[in-house]
């Protein structure tokens, strides 16, 4: 065991925190301040002298991108005969905010995140603090250990034990029916209205607008009308928080 | 010079193609079939026996993700004091389809892409074949050489010589004024209408809908009303092809 590892786990004043992280991550973190940053929500962050904010939002930006790339490769290799439409849909199923929130909860992030407990209810079902922190953690691991390590971490430590990809493949998330059911439950009228069709270089683009009780919600665009509806429905589900 | 390199550059029946790629990429490609695939547009691709399509769309999916991740890191490190909103905006300026198309043209992709010349006009200003192929190429380099190599390739061979990041930072793409000007030029009425405001856990979300001649175009959502308008304007610019 190298000395720095012994120091971090047994001597350093942060040794308790290092052990918690080691249990979570499966490895001893190198640069501890990155991980502390990953779990610092903007609600308690200070604005530093140089004008930057000492919270996890920048790491979330980076981690979101790295996670998207790793998941893209996992799917690309897992499904060698599926087209990019299928891959895109599978990825969005995996990295949906609701899933990442759930994942953060499973991993015990509610104990790790520093946030303003008076202002925020982290137990709220749709609290995105947990999913945001998961992405930030990916950013921290990437900066600390590099891409290949992060890829292994995500595949071995996150996807394998926590995400059943083939199950996700089967459980088609039908956002359109989900949205229609939600509207029925809340006695709201819903309609999918075609809006301007755009003539592209080669193909015809369809645009669809979701209206709920006559109010415009999200819209979707695709070369296929059904897909445009699906996109609009998915975005509207995000908007209304279902 | 290793034997395989001598073979590829001087003896192989593909030696001419290998030299073209070497000039473009700055290195001798390993797995040539990946690069051939990257330049094969769906308009001429065959459907293989297993149902998969022999074209660049899957590589584009992967390359888009890898490119997004590399550009995220470049910006994260280049701007240590800027917040994630700035980083997100800068990235979308860099990887906008119009920019990638222009990049593909600069790099001479029009000579390399295989496509159905009868059906498609690759010179058309908005032809996305070139940008799509650029992303596919990134996917091919990644599978051939790994992440760190691809990161070097993108930063040294693409960003440094072809993309002036600081210039992009200054030339704020004001999609709202761009859109308003376009509407004036085409004698169309434009308005930005607030739609349902969503009460989140902590913050208030604003939704804005763009209407052109009374028809709903794209919408935008953000915690800040101005940003919601900006997002809606940018998406509408993409829709109408400006």
TrEMBL record, chains A, B:
> Which Pfam families did the record assign?
dsrm (PF00035), Ribonucleas_3_3 (PF14622)
Localization, UniProt: Cytoplasm
Keyword Transcription regulation present in the record's keywords: the answer is no
User: What Gene3D superfamilies would the database entry show?
Assistant: 3.30.160.20, Ribonuclease III domain (1.10.1520.10)
Sorted alphabetically, the keyword list is: Cytoplasm, Endonuclease, Hydrolase, Magnesium, Metal-binding, mRNA processing, Nuclease, RNA-binding, rRNA processing, rRNA-binding, tRNA processing
Which biological process terms from the Gene Ontology are attached to this UniProt entry?
A: mRNA processing; regulation of gene expression; rRNA processing; tRNA processing
GO MF terms here are: double-stranded RNA binding; metal ion binding; ribonuclease III activity; rRNA binding
Cofactor(s) recorded for this entry are: Mg(2+)
Q: Where is the RNase III domain?
A: 18-146
User: Active site: which residues?
Assistant: 64, 135
Residue ranges of domain DRBM in the record = 174-242
Identify the residues that bind Mg(2+): 60, 132, 135
The answer, when asked if Glycosyltransferase is one of the entry's keywords, is: no
- Superkingdom per UniProt: Bacteria
Which reactions is this enzyme annotated as catalysing? Endonucleolytic cleavage to 5'-phosphomonoester
List the InterPro entries hit by this protein, alphabetically: dsRBD_dom (IPR014720), RNase_III (IPR011907), RNase_III_dom (IPR000999), RNase_III_sf (IPR036389)
Q: What is its EC number?
A: 3.1.26.3
Coiled-coil intervals in this record? Answer: none
Subunit-structure text: Homodimer.
Q: Which family does it belong to?
A: Belongs to the ribonuclease III family.
Q: Which HAMAP family match?
A: RNase_III
Function in brief? Digests double-stranded RNA. Involved in the processing of primary rRNA transcript to yield the immediate precursors to the large and small rRNAs (23S and 16S). Processes some mRNAs, and tRNAs when they are encoded in the rRNA operon. Processes pre-crRNA and tracrRNA of type II CRISPR loci if present in the organism.
Q: Output this protein's name.
A: Ribonuclease 3
UniProt gene name:
rnc
